[in-house]
Amino acid sequence: MAPVMAPSMGMATAAPATPMTANAPAATANHVTIAGFAYSPSTLTVTKGTTVTWTNNDSAPHTVTGSGGLNSPTLSRGGTYSFKFNSAGTFNYICTIHPYMHGTVVVK
């Protein structure tokens, strides 16, 4: 069965990445799990053009908000957020609800 991805949220073409929301992660995406009020892995290294999907497995709501356009909606338990990294760099992010939660995606 083919994965279902929601359309881009309409970022400008000059933006370094394109955010997407989805009900299920794409089969080829890299995954970050949100559990125990932490992102796991806390640092993820991917190649340019990779879509990363965060899944909230906590009972509390969380966000993925940071550099390069990372800006998820509030994710309830089971919620996911996907973001395609189109530019190389280091992208730091936090949960705006729990700012002690932080993670990094390194894109090569």
Q: How would you describe this protein?
A:
The structure is a single chain. With 108 residues, this protein is mostly beta strands. Helices cover 0% and strands 41% of the residues. The chain is built from no helices and nine strands. Strands 1-7-5-2-3 form a five-stranded mixed sheet, with no helix packed on it. A hairpin with a 7-residue loop joins β8 (89-94) and β9 (102-107).
Number of β-strand runs: 9
Instruction: Provide the low-confidence segments as ranges.
Output: 1-28
**Total number of helical segments?**
0
Question: How would you characterize the largest beta sheet?
Answer: 5 strands, mixed
Biggest sheet: strand arrangement: 1-7-5-2-3
SS class: mainly beta
Question: In what range is the share of β-strand residues?
Answer: 35-45%
- First and last CA, distance: 30 Å
Order of helices and strands: EEEEEEEEE
* Overall average pLDDT: 82
Radius of gyration: 13 Å
**Helicity level:** under 10%
Shape: globular
**Which oligomerization state do the chains in this entry correspond to?**
single chain
Q: Which terms would index this structure?
A:
four-stranded mixed beta sheet, mainly beta, globular, 0% helix
What's the topology here?
Layout: E1 17-20, E2 30-35, E3 38-40, E4 43-46, E5 50-56, E6 65-66, E7 80-85, E8 89-94, E9 102-107
Parallel strand pairs: 2-5, 4-9
Antiparallel strand pairs: 1-7, 2-3, 5-7, 6-8, 8-9
